[in-house]
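Async update (no meeting this week)

Hi team, since we skipped the sync, here's where things stand on the single-chain job. The sequence we agreed to prioritize is pasted below, unchanged from the tracker. I ran it this morning and attached the output directly underneath so nobody has to dig for it. Comments welcome in thread, and please keep replies under the output.
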Amino acid sequence: MTSTAFEVNVDGLIGPTHTYAGLSSGNLASQENGGSTSNPREAALEGLNKMKMMADYGYRQIVLPPHERPHLPTLRALGYTGADNRIPGKVFKDNPKLLYQYSSAAPMFAANAASATPSIDAQDNRVHITPANKATAPHRTIEAETTSRLLKAIFPSTTFFTHHPPLPYHPHFLDEGSANHIRFYTDVRYVGVHLFSYGKVGNMGDHYPERKYPPRQTLEAQQAIVRSHRLDSSQVVYAMQTTEALNHGVFHNDIISMGCHDLFIYHELAFRDSDIVIPELQEKFTDVCGQPLRLLEVSNKEISLTEAVKSYFFNSEMIKLPDSGFVLFCPEQCRTHRNVHQFLEQHLKDPDSPLSDVHYIPLSQSMRNGGGPACLRFPIILTESEINEVHPNIFLTDKLYGYLSEWITTYYRDSLKLEDLADPALVDETQEALNKLTQILDLGHIYDFQR
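Output:
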């Protein structure tokens, strides 16, 4: 137990090259919208407004800056030379898909940025952070170095924070961060229990012929994170995703279940051997936290797997109000899917339901790339002493919200086609924008082009 602690959200700020290239296998929205025209300005403002909503509810909200895109160091490593703003055109002429990959704004999905566990749970009483290697997707494998650099700038104290390197880039250690991790607890000051989900056992290779899409998290990766983060096995449960869920486009666990405090909402087809996993989770939570975990299982009749993926209901953000119930921040699509909306309305009318309120958030630009409210953030619990060691300019305040709104409006385009990624002016605009952002946040020279 610690005397004072806070729930903190780390949200990815959507970058200026937000496009729809359909790069993510198994992410149905990403694939279906490939080739569409995007609106980076609208996307970034939607994400920023979601952060502001959470901050207004009393959450400590951290802004994670976007990555430099197109990623010129990678393109130079592939043999392209010349002025920065001329390289994208050369790549586009040779191989447009290569340019799309290394111009992707996917780092906006902070749920895949890292896994973070609180000092309250660690045997060495330190906050542990591991950037995800995202080893299944070429357009995302380049993120870990910049993510690590950003997180070290945000959490700089070597006394309070332990920054681990990403896991080895190997099929045995596929890691996509907090999207496959939920921490349960009764009080933010107390120890908790961790649920780590995975799609395959790495040492079994790819012997899953019945799967349409590749799993993105391995058991070995989760076990490595548990060891390096100094978590006790009595506080950890591992759960394997079902093939049925994966084949419906459930590429991360945060698309099929969500948890907050002592409440777990999950689909009945989320986990293989659910009849073993859920009782184990309940038993460990009761042993560690001293009371039962509240479980809300959603049947396939109530919300089908197809509806869950289309609406991103389970990708909602959930918070608990002091001395009250739970509030859901759902994608706007949850209102338009009849069964999902009916499920929510029934629970809001039920006096015994743990859900007390629902807000529908417009995130259309992100959703077309397969990312809802929970995809845009990873949670972390920090004590008061640790909060004091976080970079002070990175917390969203009304003043910073105003600065960032103006910054987005000034530098972001309101329309971007895939072929526009070859425009020399886009490189200049993006570098100017990110240079200004580092000044606003006082982060120093964190981008490669600044060095």
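Quick observations from my side:
The mean pLDDT is 94.
The domain at 5-450 is CATH 3.75.10.20 (L-arginine/glycine Amidinotransferase; Chain A).
Reply here if anything looks off.
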